[in-house]
Design a protein that fits this description.
The chain is mostly beta strands and about 170 residues long. The chain is about 10% helix and about 25% strand. The protein folds into two domains: about 60 residues, Roll (SH3 type barrels); about 70 residues, no CATH class. The protein has a five-stranded antiparallel sheet with strand order 4-3-2-1-5, with no helix packed on it. A four-stranded mixed sheet has the order 6-8-7-9, with helices on one face. A hairpin with a 2-residue loop joins strand 7 and strand 8.
Length: about 170
């Protein structure tokens, strides 16, 4: 098992902890005989419900090295979309999240911004009147990420167009 260092991101792997599967950052390594272990891990604010004393300002929990797995760049973050929506927009500013049904494929997926012909590099979230939508965008349109706005200018999908009703109205009126 590799040695852990300060600032490493870790996942709790001991199935007996209430923090099992949660990720945090190593903030201290202290060999002081503490029965919980020498590795001090700080958890993100969205795990505050897991602490025995939620008003406690110090959110450092001690573990044995065998209770932890160091995360690599290929390990996914353990935050769900509802938590992310709360962080980006606040818990009372949205009610629904619409997710894209396919993964982002950098180099293959087109930017979803109207009039853009670039390839998408990142997936963003935009809040339009309480409805949060995901969009795959290029570097230029990343500026929409985390915005509360009137709407994201999505490209029109091929085959889904609005009917031109002016001819129908003219025919009925004559």
């Amino acid at each position: 098992m590799p040695d852990l260092k300060i600032n490493d991101i870790v996942t709790v792997v001991n199935p007996e902890w209430r923090f099992t599967g949660k990720q945090g950052q190593v903030v201290e390594i202290v060999e002081d005989g503490n029965e919980d272990g020498p590795i001090g891990v700080r958890f993100p604010e969205y795990y505050s419900h897991l602490f025995a004393y939620p008003d406690k300002p110090d959110t450092i929990v001690r573990f044995q090295i065998s209770d932890l797995k160091r995360n690599t760049r290929d390990d996914p973050q353990d935050i769900n979309l509802r938590q992310l929506g709360g962080i980006l927009f606040g818990s009372s500013m949205w009610h629904t999240i619409y997710c894209l049904g396919k993964p982002l494929m950098i180099g293959f997926t087109d930017c979803m911004h109207e009039g853009c012909s670039e390839k998408a590099l990142v997936r963003i979230m935009v809040n339009c009147f309480g409805t949060v939508c995901e969009a795959d965008v290029c570097k230029e349109h990343f500026e929409y990420h985390g915005r509360n706005c009137d709407g994201f200018p999505f490209k029109k999908q091929a085959g889904s167009s609005t009917a031109d009703t002016s001819k129908l109205v003219d025919a009925i009126m004559s």
